[in-house]
């Protein structure tokens, strides 16, 4: 059994409530930090733990915190990113719904380390039912002296507020989130200045994902070194994976970093294999933005090594033969799924969600959606495939925020690995409307 | 929904004030997103009159409220049915049959995606990923998520909502 550091108590009846949470060891880390540690010591443990951001980019959390500017007399803020809108990702919801106090406990520790006295949880508007769970838990934390003035007599004050968005994937991007929290449209800002210097209301700000903040609790309870002893290389600790698609047991799993992808897909304690005895065709291991992997690159890397559930191993081979751990949105496709249709579906998503500020993103996503729609529906030309390739290559790196890249990568990867399937759609406009291309591609018959 | 009197009842006003007080004194613009949710639940949709009322409550220029209301996909700046059935259509839901669910509802209610039934009760809308991908296919109605949908489950939902004539929205409005 894999060790768990976040979800070990999620099965306990009533763990949503303060009393049960507290009885099961809840808020001990806050007692430890506020009574025995300085903010710098908390930061030091987070650095030692090797924790990396769980929101998608995997940036080292301790380093991010140490960049926070601390001008005299200017308030600083911690913002929790609970926007969770990356297709395939639903782990933050699970954590907040099941164990809301874990996030609050993590917010207290992290805010203390950063010297923030008012912190915010920004949650996507569709999760209003989760916001209510959090609001109730926050009230309980106030009532029991974990929030408010002079917490545990330490002299440290903290106010915590949860506030909703209203339906916009882009508000997960940290500067768009800040704009939205200020009550504006969610248009990403140009960087620099970075939020660490000028963020919410032009004050120094740290934005972290829900899971990142929750992970600070076991780091303080057990120590940074103990946390770092789990995992492999620079992928330390545990990770929540949202598993969806054609598998027997979709859901949220906490894994130790470093288990094999094969064990995760086929192991009984995880996804439990492919549904209906079918074969796996493809996998998107880290949310819709990361490159799709064809079945021969899922469990093994191009060099034949076991692929592991770590930042490094999932990225092994770069974009040519690898992908990314991303947000941990693990989507599995069986042999009956159409890659062209899925690529079109994702392209439509990014077009819909582009904020429209930069023309490569606004125009490029719309154009890709249109061309993919035409190929999927039997009206495509062979030159459309090269056109798609060209459009995506012109978006990447030419935009204000990374949504443009996120829209380009899935298209590039689908063409890279499944070109035959796109060509088949062009060559067989009628047949491709009635049946799926299936599993067999030239590449598998004659691997280069 | 008829919008005859655009004014929150006292208990809703109390909630609005609680929301405003979550932010520092000169930063009450931050409350606009949540107050618009409350207004939409109260008045059914965000007409210009409703947005102007929200602007007055928050001491904002009306344009600042319009800008926000038109940016976010959860807000309706056109009239919709009392119950919005929002079916997720994104990748993971698509491969678990979201398209079939949409066409089943289209046939059952005799409307197209995006339309409202003539009696003004249901609006069908396909939307992007709602964070329920492992429990697909799914739809949201008001604040409620309905997951692992089947045709039978859709029948039951539609019957339930037809009887109640509404879904649960902000604060049970
Ligand atoms: C378009 C876009 C959407 C994003 N959505 C999310 C999100 O929903 N949740 C999240 O935590 N991070 C999201 N991110 C990443 C954030 O910008 C940011 O890197 C992250 O919240 C930092 O937290 P971490 O260091 O703890 O991962 C998104 C980024 C982009 C470009
Ligand atoms: S890349 Fe796209 S989403 Fe990001 S700022 Fe530019 S237009 Fe907006
Ligand atoms: S794809 Fe439908 S909820 Fe995520």
Structural summary, described in words:
The complex is a heterodimer of chains A (448) and B (173). Helices cover 43% and strands 12% of the residues of chain A. With 448 residues, chain A is of the alpha/beta class. In chain A, the strands form three sheets. A five-stranded mixed β-sheet of chain A has the order 8-7-11-9-10, covered by helices on one side. In chain A, strands 3-2-1-4 form a four-stranded parallel β-sheet, with helices on both faces. A two-stranded antiparallel ribbon of chain A has the order 5-6. Chain A is globular, with a radius of gyration of 22 Å. Chain A starts with 17 loop residues before the first helix and ends with a helix. The mean pLDDT of chain A is 96. Chain B has seven helices and four strands. Chain B has helices at 10-20, 32-43, 48-58, 62-71, 91-94, 98-109, 151-164; strands at 83-88, 122-127, 139-141, 144-146. The longest helix of chain B has 14 residues, at 151-164. Chain B is elongated, with a radius of gyration of 17 Å. Classes of the chains: A alpha/beta (448), B alpha+beta (173). Residues 170, 188, 354-358, 361-362, 399-401, 403-404 of chain A line the site of iron/sulfur cluster (SF4). The site of FE2/S2 (inorganic) cluster (FES) has 12 residues of chain B, from helix 5.
Describe the structure using short key phrases.
heterodimer, A: alpha/beta, four-stranded parallel sheet, 19 helices, 11 strands, globular, B: alpha+beta, Arc Repressor Mutant, subunit A, Glutaredoxin, 2 domains, four-stranded mixed sheet, 7 helices, 10% strand, binds flavin mononucleotide, binds iron/sulfur cluster
């Amino acid at each position: 059994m894999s060790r768990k550091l976040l979800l070990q108590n999620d099965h306990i009846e009533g763990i949503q409530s303060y009393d049960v949470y507290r009885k099961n060891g809840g808020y001990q880390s806050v007692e430890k930090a506020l009574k025995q540690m300085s903010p710098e010591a908390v930061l030091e443990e987070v650095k030692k733990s090797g924790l990396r951001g769980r929101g998608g980019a995997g940036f080292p959390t301790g380093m991010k915190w140490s960049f926070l500017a601390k001008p005299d007399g200017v308030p600083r803020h911690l913002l929790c990113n609970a926007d969770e809108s990356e297709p395939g990702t639903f782990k933050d919801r699970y954590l907040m719904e099941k164990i809301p106090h874990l996030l609050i406990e993590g917010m207290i520790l992290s805010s203390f380390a950063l010297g923030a006295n008012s912190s915010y949880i920004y949650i996507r508007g569709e999760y209003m039912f989760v916001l209510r769970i959090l609001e109730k838990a926050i009230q309980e934390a106030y009532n029991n002296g974990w929030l408010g003035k002079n917490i545990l007599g330490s002299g440290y004050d903290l106010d915590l507020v949860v506030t909703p968005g209203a339906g916009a994937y882009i508000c997960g991007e940290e500067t768009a989130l800040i704009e939205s929290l200020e009550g504006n449209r969610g248009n990403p800002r140009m960087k620099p200045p970075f939020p660490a210097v000028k963020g919410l209301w032009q004050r120094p700000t740290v934005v972290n994902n829900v899971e990142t903040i929750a992970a600070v609790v076991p780091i303080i309870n057990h120590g940074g070194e103990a946390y770092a002893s789990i995992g492999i290389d620079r992928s330390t600790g545990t990770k929540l994976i949202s598993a969806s698609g054609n598998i027997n047991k979709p859901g949220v799993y906490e894994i130790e970093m470093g288990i094999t992808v094969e064990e995760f897909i086929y192991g009984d304690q995880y996804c439990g294999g492919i549904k209906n005895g079918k074969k796996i065709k493809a996998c998107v291991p880290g949310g819709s933005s990361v490159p799709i992997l064809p079945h021969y690159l899922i469990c093994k890397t191009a060099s034949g090594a076991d692929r592991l559930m770590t930042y490094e191993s999932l990225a092994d081979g770069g974009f040519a033969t690898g992908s990314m751990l991303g947000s941990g949105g693990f989507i599995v496709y069986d042999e009956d799924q159409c890659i062209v249709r899925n690529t079109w579906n994702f392209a439509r998503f990014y077009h819909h969600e582009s904020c429209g500020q930069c023309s490569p993103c606004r125009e490029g996503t719309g154009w890709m959606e249109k061309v993919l729609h035409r190929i999927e529906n039997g009206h495509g030309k062979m030159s459309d495939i090269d056109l798609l390739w060209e459009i995506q290559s012109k978006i990447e790196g030419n935009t204000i925020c990374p949504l443009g890249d996120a829209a380009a990568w899935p298209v590039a990867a689908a063409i890279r690995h499944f070109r035959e399937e796109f060509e088949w759609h062009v060559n067989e406009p009628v047949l491709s409307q009635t049946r799926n291309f299936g599993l067999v591609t030239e590449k598998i018959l004659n691997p280069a | 929904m008829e919008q005859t009197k655009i004014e929150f009842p006292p208990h809703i006003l109390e909630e609005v004030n609680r929301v405003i007080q979550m932010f520092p004194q000169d930063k009450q613009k931050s409350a606009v997103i949540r107050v618009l949710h409350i207004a939409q639940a109260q008045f059914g949709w965000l007409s210009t009159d409703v947005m102007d009322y929200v602007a007055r409550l928050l001491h904002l220029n009306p344009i600042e409220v319009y800008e926000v209301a038109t940016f976010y996909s959860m807000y309706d700046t056109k009239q919709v049915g009392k119950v919005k059935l929002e079916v997720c259509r994104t990748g993971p839901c698509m491969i678990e049959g979201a398209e079939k669910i949409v066409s089943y509802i289209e046939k059952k209610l005799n409307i197209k995606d995006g339309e409202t039934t003539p009696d003004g009760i249901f609006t069908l809308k396909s939307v992007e990923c709602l964070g329920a991908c492992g429990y697909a296919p799914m739809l949201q109605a008001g604040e409620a998520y309905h997951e692992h949908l089947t045709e039978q489950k859709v029948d039951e939902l539609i019957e339930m909502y037809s009887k109640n004539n509404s879904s649960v929205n902000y604060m049970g409005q």
